Amino acid sequence: xxxxxxxxxxxxxxxxxxxxxxxxxxxxxxxxxxxxxxxxxxxxxxxxxxxxxxxxxxxxxxxxxxxxxxxxxxxxxxxxxxxxxxxxxxxxxxxxxxxxxxxxxxxxxx
Length: 110
Hints:
The protein is of the alpha+beta class. It contains two helices and two strands, in the order αββα.
């Protein structure tokens, strides 16, 4: 699975480079490790006490890899140990490129 993911990301990078778009791109790679709905759903702590999101997008104690890469980013090699949700990606990317969006309610981690 890792090999396949690596090959797929490599193909995207090669295509962006071929089209001369890589220098103006932001690559966001995230993973999903959520529990299955209604069949051994895993643990959603600390969110599992909230019924409306028990089978939602939030997995409280499952860590999955994520990365953001771009030649446009100013912080090279930045690593965050913060608790991050996929909804934090938009404000993070906007902060990294000095952009704004009045609809971004989440927090940036950059």
